[in-house]
Design a protein that fits this description.
The chain has a single domain (about 30-269), classed as 3-Layer(aba) Sandwich (Rossmann fold), CATH 3.40.50. About 35% of the residues lie in helices and about 20% in strands. It contains ten helices and ten strands. The strands form two sheets. It has an eight-stranded mixed sheet with strand order 2-3-6-4-7-8-9-10, sandwiched between helices. Strands 1-5 form a two-stranded parallel sheet.
């Protein structure tokens, strides 16, 4: 009996070790799902846009798609949109209408390895490249005409940027408390704090954001649980908002009338 128990213990320990090693070395493939696009490919979007490439260094090209207003109107400002972990700007381009319809240009940066952007993907680099986009926006607009918007993965990037630069408002769609806390939901038996290459501690950034903050999260989010995101409530200052979308999932908030109306209201403030 003892030999059998010992044998099963060895199997479990081996399995534990294999899973831990796989998570450590394969976490980039598990967390991020980029789709690269050849530089010469011409984008075809349903609304006016400009495309710019910033050669940051020898290996890094930052590709930014700037969605303009459908008419020759003067924009109220710009929304710097930091997208999620899927595909590239093509996947998120339909959401640009949420902002151009309210009088804002929308600039979407593809992270390294996504779309036409190249270079090394790392948490530190994402923060650096977000600042490059911000500084470019500041060359055209005052800080109080710049809205920082993050979706899913991009919420950590947008929150960090808002913690070090002024803006009109920070808007987060389906944010996480931190990447570490999110990973603990699935890997509660592992020391995820030392295993993860990414932290994205949104919880550390929000308390030092001076701009108004608006958070949208759905109660049926199966990727970033509502419970995980709701922990951010305690970090908000008076006047900030945590807007709950009943029945909302991770990728369908735009299908909920309350989200659409509250987002429009927020952009008009």
């Amino acid at each position: 009996m003892k030999k059998k128990l010992f044998r099963w213990l060895k199997v479990l320990l081996l399995l534990y070790g294999v899973i831990g090693i796989a998570v450590y070395y394969l976490q980039d493939k598990l967390l991020f799902h980029p789709v690269p696009v050849e530089r010469q490919v011409k984008y075809d979007f349903s609304q006016p846009f400009d495309e710019i490439n910033i050669p940051y260094n020898k290996e890094t090209n930052l590709n930014i798609v700037q969605f303009r207003l459908p008419h020759a109107d003067t924009p109220r400002g710009v929304v710097l949109y930091f997208h999620g972990n899927m595909e590239n700007v093509r996947h998120y381009a339909p959401y640009a209408k949420d902002f151009t319809g309210q009088g804002y240009e929308v600039w979407m940066l593809d992270y390294p390895g996504y779309g036409k952007s190249t270079g090394k993907f790392s948490e530190a680099n994402l923060y650096t490249y977000a600042q490059v986009v911000y500084k470019l926006a500041r060359s055209r607009w005052a800080a109080d005409h710049i809205i920082l918007y993050g979706k899913s993965l991009g919420t950590g990037v947008a929150a960090q940027l808002a913690s070090v630069h002024n803006c009109r408002r920070l808007i987060l769609e389906c944010p996480y408390y931190s990447m570490t806390s999110l990973a603990r939901r699935y890997l509660f038996l592992y020391p995820v704090g030392s295993m993860l290459h990414y932290r994205f501690p949104t919880n550390e950034y929000l308390p030092v954001v001076a701009a108004p903050i608006t958070i949208f999260h759905g109660t049926s989010d199966g990727v970033v649980s509502y419970g995980n995101a709701s922990r951010l409530r305690d970090l908000l200052k008076p006047g900030d908002e945590f807007i709950t979308i009943e029945g909302g999932g991770h990728n369908d908030l735009h299908e909920h009338a309350e989200f659409v109306s509250r987002l429009q209201q927020t952009l008009q403030e």
